[in-house]
Write a sequence for this structure.
């Protein structure tokens, strides 16, 4: 088959760095472009390890896998994946308190008004159950239940929303095989120097340790925190958000799974005196980590905290990570696009890492350039990326700011720290009116903001005035009906671990 292409078409793309970011990018480009239109080369070094501790995702990853036509069963088997219905937050509002941030929705809209306004009224009257009882994914998660969405009209079982826990290293390996089968050239090498075009400052040549010189039209920087192209070569600059999000390190270690009941369909985040620990169950092990601030605890003490959290013996050495929270001043600079950690990092509290990779790839596809890149494409990409990062940042800051904890210098700092005006506005809006508005199609929807604001102890003083069109008796009847339908639906769902075993048998 012959193709007629514009001579100005991008003919060669070079990706620096493997890991999840590199291989997700390579796989998507290979699927969309194909080897007929463009040569895609990925350079990764055996000498440079990848971060790959992020094992929890959000539901958008399903879309990415579907675009690649990945068979879910094959993916689950290869990556030791389990299903995820949300996140449990323990000791965040105060010690001894827990709440659940579910995927999906709470209840159902009533007379065109959001469900939570009716719940707010009944809660103020002492006639409503805990918010999580109106979420099927929350109820099912706590019962260790899971199933795929069912073809049942007007049933909560039709709207089950889920993500995955998986081994990120194996996912990168899975996608590496996918991409190379579709024509991506994989080079094992280390970039030692970057040659820039003297006229326009674009990246022109990569000089590898073994003497190879790699040229390309478009360069994708997936080199992690180092930002070999976007920062070391192009000096793009970085916006530091450490004053909002002081955690700057993590220790991670896997441990054995004790019983099948330990393989829960949710991530667990437990607040510590400094930072928080995670628990992520895979088929073959439990992923554990401790995210903390080196300003408030040293590395040795942090490792002790982590080891004390383990429910069984560790099966690997502790992996230590360091970062600065924030983002590049430009994710797209000249003919270089940073994706993943090279573009920025908002700590892993809400499992957004892989989504930000996926989102950057989607924007790249939408604004895919010619060789002579238009500045308007670059500007729009950067504007959209910044907006997305800022909204996610605000959501993460909310967890730290809205807390009753004052039992350590760390939590006292978080309580006292100034927060972005965009977040302050959202908190005040909810406090005063009970309203939550999703802005600019931001990643986290009304359910997420409601779960965390309510869960962290922010109380709404009011509800939508049109709620009063229904009598209290009628509202209570409807809420009880919703709660009953959700409880019955959860009872119909099978055990999470047994469901996976049946899928893979």
């Amino acid at each position: 088959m012959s193709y007629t292409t514009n001579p100005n078409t991008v003919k060669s793309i070079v990706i620096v760095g493997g890991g999840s970011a590199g291989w997700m990018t390579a796989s998507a480009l290979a699927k969309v472009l194909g080897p007929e239109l463009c040569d895609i080369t990925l350079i990764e070094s055996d000498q440079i390890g990848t971060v790959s501790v992020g094992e929890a995702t959000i539901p958008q990853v399903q879309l990415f896998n579907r675009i690649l036509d990945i068979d879910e069963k094959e993916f689950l088997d290869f990556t030791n994946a389990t299903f995820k219905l949300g996140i449990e937050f323990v000791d965040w509002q105060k010690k001894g308190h827990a709440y659940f941030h579910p995927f999906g929705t709470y209840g159902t809209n009533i007379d065109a008004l959001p469900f939570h306004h009716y719940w707010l009224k009944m809660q103020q009257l002492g006639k409503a159950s805990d918010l999580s009882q109106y979420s099927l994914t929350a109820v099912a998660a706590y019962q260790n239940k899971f199933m795929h969405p069912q073809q049942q009209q007007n049933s909560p079982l039709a709207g089950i929303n889920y993500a995955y826990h998986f081994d990120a290293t194996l996912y990168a390996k899975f996608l590496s095989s996918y991409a190379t089968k579709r024509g991506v050239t994989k080079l094992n090498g280390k970039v030692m120097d970057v040659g820039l075009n003297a006229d326009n400052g674009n990246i022109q040549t990569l000089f590898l340790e073994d003497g190879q010189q790699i040229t390309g039209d478009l360069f994708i920087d997936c080199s992690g925190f180092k930002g070999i192209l976007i920062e070391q070569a192009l000096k793009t600059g970085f916006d530091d958000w450490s004053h909002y999000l002081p955690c700057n390190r993590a220790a991670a270690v896997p441990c054995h799974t004790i019983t099948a009941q330990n393989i829960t369909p949710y991530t667990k985040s437990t607040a510590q005196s400094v930072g928080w620990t995670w628990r992520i169950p895979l088929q073959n092990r439990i992923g554990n980590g401790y995210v903390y601030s080196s300003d408030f605890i040293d590395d040795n003490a942090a490792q002790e905290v982590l080891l004390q959290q383990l429910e069984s013996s560790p099966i690997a050495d502790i992996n230590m990570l360091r970062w600065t929270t924030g983002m590049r001043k430009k994710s797209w600079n000249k003919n270089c696009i940073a994706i993943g950690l090279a573009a920025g990092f908002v700590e892993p509290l809400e499992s957004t890492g892989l989504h930000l990779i996926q989102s950057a790839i989607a924007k790249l596809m939408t604004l895919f350039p010619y060789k002579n890149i238009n500045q308007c494409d670059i500007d729009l990409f950067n504007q959209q990326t910044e907006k997305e990062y800022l909204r996610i940042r605000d959501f993460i800051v909310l967890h730290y700011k809205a807390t009753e904890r004052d039992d350590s210098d760390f939590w006292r700092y978080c309580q006292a720290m100034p927060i972005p005006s965009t977040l302050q506005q959202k908190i005040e809006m909810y406090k005063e009116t009970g309203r939550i508005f999703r802005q600019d199609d931001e990643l986290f929807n009304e359910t997420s903001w409601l779960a965390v604001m309510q869960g962290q102890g922010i109380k709404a003083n009011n509800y939508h005035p049109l709620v009063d069109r229904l009598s209290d008796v009628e509202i209570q009847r409807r809420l009880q009906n919703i709660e009953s339908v959700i409880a019955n639906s959860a009872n119909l769902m099978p055990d999470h671990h047994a469901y996976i075993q049946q899928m893979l048998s």
